[in-house]
Amino acid sequence: MPAESPTQTPSHLLYLHGFRSSPQSVKSRRMLGWLAEHRPDVTTWCPQLPPSPAEALAMVEAGITDWPRDRMVVVGSSLGGFYATWVAERHGCPAVLLNPAVDPARDLAKYIGEQTAFHDPAERFFFRAEFIDQLRALTVAAISRPQRYLALIAKGDEVLDWREMSARYPGAQQIVLEGGDHAISDFDDHLPSLLHFLKLIP
User: Fold this and answer.
1) Is 0.70 topped by the overall pTM?
2) If we measure between CA atoms, which residue out of 71, 96, 65, 67 comes closest to residue 11?
3) Is 36 helix (H, G, I), strand (E, B) or coil?
């Protein structure tokens, strides 16, 4: 089944960062910076997500309340990709996933306790045991319309298994990179493909 990008040009883009990350991530700054320069007509939002998954998605839901569902898209990296899948299924919008977390309830259990923020080691937060239960509750059983997804997956991801990521999105458009890393260090090379899928460029 061919991938299905938005039916019309998006007017709103939501970017969701990963665990211990922030709106200062390289990928979010690259994508939102490009949009600010080339597509200032698009409303963008990359919130600083709280550690609690339930609170994070409650914040997202409140923030996009007035967004037009037929003209919004979501981009998510790592844990943000897990969240983006939830948003896409809930609101029926296209999603771009960057090395998306597949089973964060399993993978983040070892991080229960005090953590440091990736972009500011002086900033600390506590990842609580109940957050694991929240992640389980937010897990989408299966994607309903694979054509609304594009997943950028690096075989060289040192954090997540690329095979799991690929298997999680059967039928979706996938760009599987030979090598690469969790951060997708060559993100700039792939940005045009992502923007094209989202109908932000021809």
Assistant:
1) yes
2) 71
3) helix
What is the rounded CA–CA span in Å between residue 56 and residue 107?
18
Sign of the dihedral through C-alpha 31, 36, 40, 43: positive
Is it the case that residue 145 has pLDDT exceeding 70? Answer: yes
pLDDT tens-digit map of 85-113: 999 999 999 999 999 999 999 999 998 88
CATH number for the domain running over 12-197: 3.40.50.1820
| Residue 116 main-chain phi, psi, to 5 deg | -110, 150
The arrangement of strands across the sheet holding 72-77 comes to 43-45, 12-16, 72-77, 95-98, 149-154, 173-177
> How many whole angstroms separate alpha carbon 13 and alpha carbon 147?
18
Q: How far is CA 138 from the centre of its chain?
A: 14
3-state secondary structure of 69: helix
CB under 8 Å, gap of 24 or more: what pairs does 28-36 form?
Answer: 28/77, 30/187, 30/188, 30/191, 31/75, 31/191, 31/194, 34/191, 34/195, 35/200
Domain locations along the chain: 12-197
pLDDT in tens, 116-143: 777 677 778 778 899 999 999 999 999 9
